[in-house]
């Protein structure tokens, strides 16, 4: 009989969830008894959980509250946790209703609603982007004229760069607005569209842990984005010795304070404009795309375990135990269509992970053809090294061992190597 504290986790299930968040569940289950609320019957998760309640829609507050109450009656819950963007607000509300530690709901709402976040950044003088919230194409055109092209058009409340498009002129703005508005219509916290100043410079994220209002900046993630005018994330790299951490730490802490975040792990996206950090957004959760895994490989710090510890009222371990680097290369085809062949060769001792989320017969749809991260990506690979530059180079080298055959919708077959 286990005597570990019990943590309530709200997270999706399925093969893709295992590929991107399996390391998170395994980390939490190593220290806690996990009870799960999810949308489908668990499969690979079964060895790591003690109990489960399946609900049709975990974003529905009534369904979530009923499931949470049922688990609270069966278990002595120590905390509640999610690493899923769309579950952040309902899980915060559930935690408070169960008497568990959690960020103020208002702070989580501010993280989810980028318009509210921009207002708080302005009020607290946190360097951010000029931003206007709009509800029509006419308002978007007026905002773009006021800000000046190029602009970025995005949903106020979404994730994974879905619906985020750069517009360089009025004609592109029309297409960008329609794309962003379609994505924004799915928002729970806001259905607004934002027209923002384009921040021209390298993109990074800052991985932070906050406990009782005190924030530790754990790592900086260097990012590669592409597929313009979209902002698809193509690669991430974490170097424990990255000197940029000290440069961006004050802005990261100021952003967390401005939003009212008091506890938990945050993934803060910025761009460096003329070498100075400017805020894109604050995500009140562990970063996606295996970033938490990269941080652990590079520093030894387990951000997932830190999130669970804080949720359960414990002090997280944030002292680095190693100093190295790790990079993830996110794999995409060069055309939309049907995957007919997928093969990887070239295993190396520094190659930590190779993961495919597609199989022959699966359809892939790139952002240029109306798709997004969830429809376009084939998988990822993770490489380790002593420096960030070397880790990135190794990830690119490994990617050249990937061969993909995709049959475009025109009916011809295109062969892609190193996609």
Characterization of the model:
The protein is α+β, with helices and mostly antiparallel strands and 419 residues long. It folds into 4 domains: 6-102, 3-Layer(aba) Sandwich (Rossmann fold); 130-197, ATP-grasp fold, A domain (Dna Ligase, domain 1, 2-Layer Sandwich), CATH 3.30.1490; 200-323, ATP-grasp fold, B domain (D-amino Acid Aminotransferase, Chain A, domain 1), CATH 3.30.470.20; 331-417, no CATH class. Helix content is 32%, strand content 30%. The protein is built from 12 helices and 20 strands. It has helices at residues 15-29, 61-74, 88-97, 105-112, 114-123, 137-147, 170-184, 244-259, 291-299, 303-311, 373-376, 388-399; strands spanning 6-10, 33-38, 51-54, 77-81, 131-134, 151-155, 165-167, 193-197, 203-211, 214-226, 232-239, 264-273, 276-283, 325-331, 337-344, 351-356, 363-364, 379-385, 402-408, 414-417. The strands form 4 sheets. It has an 8-stranded antiparallel β-sheet, sandwiched between helices. The protein has a 4-stranded parallel β-sheet with strand order 3-2-1-4, sandwiched between helices. A 4-stranded antiparallel β-sheet has the order 5-8-6-7, with helices on both faces. The longest helix is centred in the middle third of the chain and has 16 residues, at 244-259. The termini are far apart.
Summary?
The chain is of the alpha+beta class and 419 residues long. The protein has helices at 15-29, 61-74, 88-97, 105-112, 114-123, 137-147, 170-184, 244-259, 291-299, 303-311, 373-376, 388-399; strands spanning 6-10, 33-38, 51-54, 77-81, 131-134, 151-155, 165-167, 193-197, 203-211, 214-226, 232-239, 264-273, 276-283, 325-331, 337-344, 351-356, 363-364, 379-385, 402-408, 414-417.
């Amino acid at each position: 009989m286990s005597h570990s504290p019990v943590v309530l986790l709200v997270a999706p299930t399925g093969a893709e969830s295992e590929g991107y968040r399996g390391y998170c569940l395994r980390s939490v289950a190593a220290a806690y008894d996990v009870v799960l609320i999810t949308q489908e019957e668990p499969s690979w998760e079964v060895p790591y959980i003690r109990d489960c309640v399946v609900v049709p829609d975990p974003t529905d507050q009534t369904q979530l509250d009923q499931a949470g109450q049922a688990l609270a009656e069966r278990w002595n819950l120590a905390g509640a946790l999610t690493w899923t963007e769309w579950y952040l607000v309902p899980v915060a509300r559930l935690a408070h209703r169960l008497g568990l530690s959690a960020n103020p709901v208002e702070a989580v709402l501010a993280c989810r609603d980028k318009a509210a976040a921009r207002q708080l950044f302005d009020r607290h003088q946190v360097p951010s982007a000029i931003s206007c919230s709009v509800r029509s194409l006419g308002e978007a055109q007026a905002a773009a004229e006021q800000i000046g092209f190029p602009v970025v058009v995005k949903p106020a409340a979404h994730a994974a760069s879905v619906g985020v498009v750069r517009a360089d002129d009025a004609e592109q703005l029309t297409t960008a607005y329609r794309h962003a508005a379609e994505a924004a219509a799915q928002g729970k916290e806001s259905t607004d569209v934002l027209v923002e100043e384009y921040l021209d410079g390298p993109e990074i994220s800052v991985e932070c842990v906050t406990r009782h209002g005190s924030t530790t900046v754990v790592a900086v993630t260097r990012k590669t984005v592409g597929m313009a005018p979209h902002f698809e994330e193509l690669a991430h790299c974490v170097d424990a010795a990255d000197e940029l951490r000290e440069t961006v730490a004050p802005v990261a802490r100021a952003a967390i304070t401005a939003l009212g975040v008091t506890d938990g792990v945050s993934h803060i996206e910025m761009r460096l404009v003329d070498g100075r950090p400017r805020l894109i957004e604050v995500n009140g959760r562990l970063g996606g795309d295996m970033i938490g895994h990269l941080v652990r490989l590079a520093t030894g710090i387990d951000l997932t375990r830190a999130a669970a510890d804080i949720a359960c009222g414990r002090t997280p371990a944030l002292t680095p135990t190693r100093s190295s680097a790790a990079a993830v290369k996110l794999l995409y085809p060069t055309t939309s269509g049907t995957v007919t062949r997928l093969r990887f060769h070239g295993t190396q001792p520094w190659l930590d992970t190779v993961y495919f989320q597609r199989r022959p017969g699966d359809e892939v749809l790139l952002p240029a053809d109306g798709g997004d991260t969830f429809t376009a990506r084939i998988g990822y690979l993770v490489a380790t090294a002593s420096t960030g530059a070397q880790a990135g180079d190794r990830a690119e080298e490994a990617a050249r061992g990937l061969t993909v055959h995709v049959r475009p919708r025109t009916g011809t077959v295109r062969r892609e190597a190193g996609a």
